[in-house]
Specification:
It holds the Pfam family RRF. By secondary structure, the protein is α+β, with helices and mostly antiparallel strands. 62% of the residues lie in helices and 17% in strands. It has helices spanning 3-26, 36-39, 52-55, 76-85, 108-145, 151-184; strands spanning 42-45, 48-51, 56-62, 65-70, 91-95, 98-102.
Length: 185
């Protein structure tokens, strides 16, 4: 096993961690609503809990309004109830099998709460990156102990590992910074 193989393996794991982080930040409320806010809200339809993205198409009807065009009119009640129970504080308007969810502008207090939540999500993501880095470093050390990797390759691998994790952390930091600016409006 070469150090490049270990680095390539961690790159895919880091990419997944970054994609997960980006998806979580998309769910955070800002002045502009994102369809991701509703996608994973689970609605009770005929005794089964299904995410909203499986019940219909979710699109922006305006900066602070989401439109959910349900596949079937019978989903309306379950979808509205699910969004209300999710505590998103969205206003509801129903037109046949289309539901419009609108949000009031964020107050300063709400913005600060959302930014705190963003910081918490970012810190959890960074901890995940650190765990992945530590695991890859252990793999490099173990490969060296088993004589599958030379000592100098182990340190080349560590340098490349540090560079790779730093790149992903910086990308995640940039995502968080953009989201914070979006929240501040």
């Amino acid at each position: 096993m070469t150090y490049q193989e270990i680095i390539e393996k961690i790159k895919s794991e880091l990419q997944k961690a970054m994609d997960d982080f980006k998806a979580e930040t998309m769910k955070l409320r800002s002045n502009r609503l994102s369809p991701a806010l509703l996608e994973d809200v689970e609605a009770n339809c005929f005794g089964s809990f299904l995410p909203m993205k499986q019940l219909g198409a979710i699109t922006n009807a305006g900066p602070r309004e989401l439109m959910v065009e349900l596949w079937d009119k019978s989903y309306v009640e379950g979808a509205v109830k699910a969004v209300e129970q999710a505590g998103l504080n969205l206003g509801v308007r129903i037109n046949d099998k289309t539901i419009y969810f609108s949000a009031p502008p964020l107050t300063e207090e709400t913005r600060l709460e959302v930014i705190k939540l963003l910081d918490k999500i970012k810190e959890e993501a960074f901890q995940g990156v650190r765990r992945l880095r530590d695991k890859a470093w252990k793999d490099l050390q173990d490969a060296c102990v088993r004589s599958e990797l030379r000592e100098d390759d182990k340190f080349k691998g560590r340098d490349k590992l540090d560079e790779t994790t730093r790149e992903y952390r910086e990308k995640m930091e940039e995502i968080a910074k953009r989201k914070e600016e979006e929240i501040k409006g």
